Amino acid sequence: MRGETVYNTYMNESRRREEAGLFTILHTAGVAGSHVESKLNAVGLSMAKLAALTALREAGESLPLSQLAERLSCVKSNITQLVDRLEADGLVSRAADPRDRRSRLAVMTAAGRKSCEAGTRIQQQAERVLLSELSGTERRQLASLMAKLERSAR
Questions:
Q1: Predicted local distance difference test score (pLDDT) of residue 18
Q2: According to a count of CB atoms within 10 Å of the terminal CB, is the N or C end of the chain lower?
Q3: 12 is a domain residue
Q4: Nearest 5°: CA angle at 8, between 6 and 14?
């Protein structure tokens, strides 16, 4: 069964309007995520790839794979696969870590910088579209509530 079918089976229209429970939040996050993913796919990116490129940009364009995994809150095997895909796309390269012979660095390439910039613009545009119905106050409230949910989930 598709996620939307499960959701509609679980929540009828009137109940959806009355209750904004966790299932509604998860469903909405999935819909929003799919919207952003479809826009990023048009330039050869995914949210995971953009997150990795953004983390590298914020770190000065290179990080040991273990630190990249930590910043993205994922396990090392997942980061290895993600960096493999980024490397195959020419967006990052691997290099020896001069501070630790056992470690490898993910290093952003020039193509990675361009993709990161394009992906960031797409993400910002998608955010404007997705949040266009909310006032500034509502956006701040949403951010505050989501931060509370994230803290309680940790």
A1: 58
A2: C
A3: no
A4: 150
